[in-house]
């Protein structure tokens, strides 16, 4: 795809004015970094970072049977999500393979407004999710609407983010729990303010109309000057989520894996009423996982300096025992780290003799429990 065909966010000119290095990400021209990836990463861990996430895919589901449709289409129990709250869930194929991992927000502040949900899909899967929801809506009194062009999405993440945002909003941030969202204003602009993120830090994601994106970005930048806020690109977002042990679709999650294969069987709610897409296959997958445990997603910390990459074999005793799904230098640990699926026999933290085959050389790695990093609350 040529750069002229890439989709651009409402903040495109802002990123270029800041000297961002741009990259093609899922058909969008997105900022990879503005300066040093490491400095952006450290800013989020210690102060605050500002991200443009407008490439994410927003899909609105409304109507009297919106909850029933989502319960049928997704593996989670969306009917139990309270107004103003959000839930992490997945959409699977009939064979149980993961199509995408999602966050579903229940909008509206009363039980009467229970028929309004926003599904947020990964950029690379937004069309797939939209198509699947539209197809699965047949027979339900509910409407599925593509709202990808209706929102720009900004995220302010890091320990200083509550103070920065509080200076610009009328919303009660103290009362806003993790995985909750409420309508309010930011810099005088209407916004859905969600306490969610993909960095392992406290922070907020702000859904605004695209025409307001630049003024909200500028207001946050100004409000964050004294707190050390910096603009951040996709590169540090990846190292932040890796340290936090958060899966990335296409790496830790794919259509060839069920949620049980990915160690995320907890998101599948068999107890909910009625059928849902993939129920039979996932029931089998759950039973299979109990009898014959699948490979386990673990953390690996390098003893040397070489960085493992996705697809590299994990080895022990001359045998391949797994595969790296994500790897990068960790600014927080000061060493290369990776997530990998490995055979259960080698998954316990501290397991001896595990290495990664990096271009024919077996580099030693320590097996650790995920996440690599957990913020102090």
Keywords summarizing the entry:
alpha+beta; 8 helices; six-stranded antiparallel β-barrel; 32% strand; six-stranded mixed sheet
Strand content: 25-35%
Element-level helix/strand string: EHEEHEEHEEEHEEHEEEHEHHEEEEEE
- CA radius of gyration: 21 Å
Q: What is the helix content?
A: 10-25%
Give start-end ranges of low-pLDDT stretches. none
* Strand order across the largest sheet: 11-12-13-10-4-14
In this structure, how is the largest beta sheet organized? 6 strands, mixed
Number of strands: 20
N-to-C span: 43 Å
The 3D shape can be described as: globular
What is the SS-derived class?
alpha+beta
The count of helical stretches stands at: 8
**Average predicted confidence as pLDDT:** 96
Account of the 3D structure:
It is built from 8 helices and 20 strands. With 377 residues, the chain is of the alpha+beta class. Strands 11-12-13-10-4-14 form a 6-stranded mixed β-sheet, with helices on both faces. Strands 15-18-17-16-19-20 form a 6-stranded antiparallel beta barrel. Helix 2 crosses helix 7 (234-243).
Task: Give the topology, please.
Elements: E1 7-8, H1 12-17, E2 21-25, E3 28-33, H2 37-46, E4 48-52, E5 57-62, H3 66-73, E6 86-92, E7 98-106, E8 116-121, H4 126-136, E9 143-146, E10 152-157, H5 161-166, E11 181-186, E12 189-194, E13 203-208, H6 213-223, E14 229-231, H7 234-243, H8 279-291, E15 296-302, E16 313-316, E17 319-330, E18 335-342, E19 354-358, E20 361-368
Helix pairs in contact: 2-7
Summarize the structure.
The protein has 377 residues and is of the alpha+beta class. The protein has helices at residues 12-17, 37-46, 66-73, 126-136, 161-166, 213-223, 234-243, 279-291, and strands spanning 7-8, 21-25, 28-33, 48-52, 57-62, 86-92, 98-106, 116-121, 143-146, 152-157, 181-186, 189-194, 203-208, 229-231, 296-302, 313-316, 319-330, 335-342, 354-358, 361-368. It starts with 6 loop residues before the first strand and ends in a 9-residue tail after the last strand.
């Amino acid at each position: 795809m040529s750069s002229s065909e890439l989709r651009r966010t409402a903040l495109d000119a802002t990123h270029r004015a800041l000297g961002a290095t741009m990259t093609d990400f899922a058909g969008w021209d997105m900022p990879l970094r503005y300066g040093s990836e490491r400095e952006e990463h450290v800013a989020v861990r210690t102060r605050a970072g500002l991200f443009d996430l407008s490439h994410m895919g927003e899909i609105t589901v409304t109507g009297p049977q919106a909850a029933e449709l989502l319960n049928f289409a997704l593996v989670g129990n969306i009917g139990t999500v309270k107004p103003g709250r959000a839930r992490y869930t997945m959409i699977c194929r009939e064979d149980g393979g993961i199509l995408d991992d999602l966050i579903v927000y229940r909008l509206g502040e009363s039980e009467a407004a229970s028929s309004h949900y926003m599904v947020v899909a990964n950029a690379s899967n937004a069309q797939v999710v939209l198509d699947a929801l539209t197809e699965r809506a047949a027979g339900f009194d509910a409407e599925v609407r593509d709202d990808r062009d209706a929102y720009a999405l900004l995220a302010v993440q890091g320990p200083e983010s509550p103070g920065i945002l509080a200076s610009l909003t009328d919303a009660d941030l103290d009362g806003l729990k993790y995985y909750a969202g409420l309508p309010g204003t930011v810099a005088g602009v209407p916004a859905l303010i969600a306490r969610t993120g993909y960095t392992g830090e406290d922070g907020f994601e702000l859904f605004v109309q695209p025409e307001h994106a630049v003024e909200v970005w500028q207001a946050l930048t100004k409000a964050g000057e004294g707190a050390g806020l910096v603009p951040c690109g996709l590169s540090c977002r990846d190292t932040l989520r890796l340290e936090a042990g958060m899966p990335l679709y296409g790496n830790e999650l794919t259509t060839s894996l069920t949620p049980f294969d990915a160690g995320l069987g907890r998101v599948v709610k068999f107890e909910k009423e009625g059928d849902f897409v993939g129920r039979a296959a996932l029931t089998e997958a759950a039973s299979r996982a109990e009898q014959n445990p699948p490979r386990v997603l673990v953390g690996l910390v390098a003893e040397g300096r070489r960085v493992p990459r996705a697809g590299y074999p994990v080895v022990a005793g001359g045998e391949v025992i797994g595969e790296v799904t994500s790897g990068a230098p960790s600014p927080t640990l000061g060493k290369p780290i990776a997530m990998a699926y490995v055979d259960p026999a080698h998954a316990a933290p501290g397991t001896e003799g595990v290495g990664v085959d990096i271009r024919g050389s077996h580099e030693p790695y320590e097996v650790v429990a995920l996440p690599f990093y957990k913020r102090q609350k």
